[in-house]
Amino acid sequence: MNFIIKAYRVVFNIVCLFILKKISKNTISFKSPRLGKGLNITAINNSILDINNLSARNNLSIFVSHGTLIFEKDCFVNNDCSFNCLKSIRIGENTIFGEGVKIYDHDHSIDENYVVSKTDFVTSPVMIGANCWIGSNTVILKGVSIADNVIIGANSLVNKSVLVSGIYVNKNGSLTKIK
Questions:
Q1: Is CB count within 10 Å lower at the N or C end of the chain?
Q2: Contact 146/161 with Cβ under 8 angstroms?
Q3: Contact 152, 132 (CB under 8 A)
C-alpha cells in the first residue's frame, strides 16, 4: 500500500508540473524530479524554473516571479525548504539542503521614514556552487555567492558571500570558517 501512495504522489506532482507548464507563460523545465508530498510551486510573470533531476522530500515551497530559479543536476532538498526568487537563484550540481533551509534573493524596500513596502523590492542574485551542503535551518539572503565545496553549519545566517571552500559555522552571530 505504501508503494501505491508514493507512486500516486509522483504521478500527481508530475501532472501538476505539466499543467502549470502548459497553462502559464513561464518556462518550467523538469525531466525526472522526485518530489515528496506538500509540493507548493508558484511561477508567475514570465519566470524560469528548472528543476530537472531535483530530488526533494516533503513540503518544498518554491516562489518565482520575474526571476530565474535553476537547480543543476543531482541536487537534494530535505523537508520544509523554501526558495523565494524575484531575480535569480542558481544552485550548483550535487548540492544538498538540510531541513528548513530558506533562500531569498530580495528584501522589501524601506523608505526614509522606515515604512516597509509590501510591493517594492531590492533584489540581488544568489549563487550556490557545486557539491555544497547547506545545514538545517540556514537562511541565505540576497546577493550571496557560495563557492564550490562549501559546508554551511546548521542554524546559520548567510548574508555575505563565502568565496573559499571549507566548513563554516555560526559563531557569535557571524559565519566563521572552522576547516
A1: N
A2: yes
A3: yes
User: Are 55 and 76 spatial neighbours (Cβ–Cβ below 8 Å)?
Assistant: yes
pLDDT band at 1; cut points 50, 70, 90: very low
- Amino acid in position 91: I
- Element of type H or E holding 146: strand 145-146
DSSP annotation of 162 = B
User: Distance between CA atoms of 88 and 164, rounded to whole angstroms?
Assistant: 22
Which residue's entry shows cell 515551497? 61
Which pTM does this prediction carry? 0.84
Q: What is the pLDDT of residues 27-79, one digit of tens each?
A: 655 566 677 888 888 888 888 888 877 889 999 999 999 999 999 999 999 99
Rounded distance between C-alpha atoms, residue 131 and residue 118, angstroms? 36
Contact between 139 and 158 under an 8 Å Cβ cutoff? The reply is yes
From CA 144, how far away is CA 160, in angstroms rounded?
6
**Is residue 38 within 8 Å of 17, Cβ to Cβ?**
no
Q: pLDDT tens digit string along 82-113?
A: 999 999 999 999 999 999 999 999 999 999 99
The helix (run of H) or strand (run of E) holding residue 176 is strand 174-177
pLDDT at 21: 53
User: What is the grid cell recorded at 10?
Assistant: 509522483
Report how far apart, in Å, the C-alpha atoms of 2 and of each of 9, 59, 151, 171 are.
Answer: 11, 18, 34, 43
